[in-house]
């Protein structure tokens, strides 16, 4: 091991002192953005609702007012599901990138959402599960199996899971699982009709279902937020982490568990949404540096803000109809994804 | 061989993205000799070689093959006279030695002229010359690093050119394999009169094998000539920025460089600026 | 030359000749067997189905005789379907092998890197949003494939194109384009959406002579062009520098070959949608059959045709009462194969 010269240590120390207030301030700015995004999500849509009425709908609800009805019954649950799903995907992406030490890890790209989707469809179609709290477990199982498959396939062998292999295994799994899901819903026109809307990823869910999903996502989120210190050590490489006394297997398992909780319930709630979990951690790291203890909370704030913004964009560009949020994120998310890929040197791929 | 092909550069400037790497370099490759190009990392030696092989267009100046600007010749005309082995060529997965070496015959085949007895002989001779005939049916990816490098050289030989440029053919090889490859190149040079120009990392091996040594720094030639004549402690200091002790190689009588570091030095050999 | 050397050269010559002969013989045998299998699969898809017809009836129907029902079944339904399957398979197989060889990456087939997705997106937009059909839609699919290919190539370009960067950029572009197809499906009515599914999975259902025409024209035009351009494939495989040193005009050859491959993908996608993984698996299977690395273009094309024809029979008749799109079957077969390939590539410490 190389002993760092004292000058460097001083540097780090100084950065930490001045860095912390800056990071806290940044997080507060992020929260402000999140609040604005929530407000926009409540106010805008097929018809805009003036801000005053939005506030009234939340504080002093009058069921006879049509605008208030829309805000309270459609947009509020939608905004809440955006908050939950956004935070879930942002955190899941960050944890996955940390655990796999792979810049391309993303629940959508790696087929985890597709696995959850397939099992949810099986749960609804074959097992006759109709309540969210019933089929969400199918989502967990599907997410877990897909994660194991994709990671297992790409990690075999000497060089381990390189970004390309992981991405390909993910894209392949997504295609195959999507085909099976498609085959299952094909025979049933009604199911297909629902499925084609669900498979693109949409936030419009009833308050009831959002409420049922919330506890799962919250548990997963707490697990993810607590893992920052371990991810920091793991970032130095598996061998180094072991040398520093970390139980690598345990950390991996914990990470995987929270990812499965987050992705499974997010997908069961809103369908597969790609690129959010991939792009957000990279954006956040540009602000916070590589310390996962900061990356994680930032991701939990930035991801829902972006997801809600994408949802609002989808509602506004195609008024009076709308573009599902999954499509907006796939289209907009591909841009930073490609920029990321371009930035790497070939040797790193 | 009387009408040997000649290769030279004239005030050649080579650049990547507008950044000059080789600056106004004029250089004549001695025909029929073994030339080694040495210099620190990023001194432009590989770039010079790529420029001379027509893989990189000059920003200004020219590379002359038999007195004509190489970039005005067709790719095929160049390939018939000049062979080049890049630093890391790619062997397709599972390709056999025979097949890889056969691809060296590409410039000699045309739309209607496919595989002939002449191609067969050229490939066989290249396999024998590089001592890989026994490996002919083996897949290239199963060979050792030294064997693989010999196969690549065989491919370049099958091309039947009497100018052969090699970009660091000994990198990634261990010492015995480095010697093996350089011995092979010397054989070729002596037996066939092939003009060899190779970029080398190891100064001692370069001195031992080269008839003509070219030392570069910052895109310019600092010194060139027979190793024993050009290599002095001052030249090494100028090219590599490193003090050294110059001995005589007990086997070949060529100069041998012993580097001087901070922990192993006496005052005489510290570089001028720090001593 | 000394006698010893002459002798060694003679021995080496014999071994070179032997190696080449064995290889050529194997290629001929494999191709011949594949041709027979493809022919059998083709005849099989014309003969078998919910109602089996005899070869005699088929010949009769082709000559204009026989009952009207048989004529309709054979000439209007099964023949165009089988022909589309055959040609689509040939195109995808060839295009896949070209891409994989050119980009020196077994994973870089047009269905993985988003070329098919480009064709699909263009076709679905043309049909759902503009109500186009027939040749106009085929042309839009072709345009979509070309556009996607250009986009991916430009986006992946950074002092040259690395195979891996191109694959990753392609996956990103494919995700975005697939979402466009999904979106068009949510915009259409349920019935149209069922039909538009072809653009997500790839299907031979309801293919008519209208689909065969443009496809056949594309094959007749593109196959000879590809064969002509493929001469430089052997040196391009050795890397740009080595290829150039061997007298290949690298950029020109590559652009010509990629152009052919993209056009083949576009034409096939226009006819049957992005039949998943056919382009991807054909090349590797062909190489394994031949036991060598060289670009096995003809065998790859034949394997593509065989896969599509057999998968379509499975999709139509082997899975209960529903007729599934052929692309679903090929994806379900092809995806595990890709995953297996990834683990294998890993074990060798290469390939991705």
Q: Which helices and strands occur, and which strands form pairs?
A:
The complex is a heterotrimer of chains A (349), B (275) and C (352).
Chain A (H helix, E strand, L loop, with lengths): L5 H38 L7 H9 L6 H35 L11 H14 L6 H24 L7 H24 L2 H10 L8 H20 L1 H7 L3 H6 L4 H23 L5 H13 L3 H26 L7 H19 L6
Chain B lengths: L6 E10 L2 E10 L5 E5 L6 H8 L7 E6 L2 E2 L5 H7 E4 L11 H6 L14 H13 L15 H14 L4 E5 L7 H18 L2 E5 L3 H7 L2 E6 L2 E6 L1 H4 L2 H8 L3 E5 L6 E5 L16
Parallel strand pairs in B: 3-8, 3-9, 6-7, 7-8
Antiparallel strand pairs in B: 1-2, 1-4, 4-5, 9-10, 11-12
Helix pairs in contact in B: 4-5, 5-6
Chain C lengths: L2 H45 L7 H8 L5 H35 L12 H15 L4 H23 L6 H25 L2 H7 L1 H4 L7 H21 L3 H4 L3 H6 L4 H23 L5 H13 L6 H22 L7 H22 L5
Low-confidence stretches of chain A: 1-18
Query: Could you state the order of secondary-structure elements of chain A as H and E?
Result: HHHHHHHHHHHHHH
Give the percentage of residues in beta strands of chain B.
25-35%
Write the CATH fold name of the largest domain in chain B. Rossmann fold
As a whole number of angstroms, the C-alpha radius of gyration of chain B is 20 Å
Distance, first to last CA of chain A: 26 Å
Domain ABC transporter (chain B): 7-243
GO molecular function (chain B): ATP binding; ATP hydrolysis activity
Organism (chain B): Streptomyces sedi
Keywords (chain B): ATP-binding, Cell membrane, Ion transport, Iron, Iron transport, Membrane, Nucleotide-binding, Transport
Keywords:
heterotrimer, A: 349 residues, mainly alpha, ABC transporter involved in vitamin B12 uptake, BtuC, 14 helices, 0% strand, globular, disordered N terminus, C: 352 residues, 15 helices, disordered C terminus
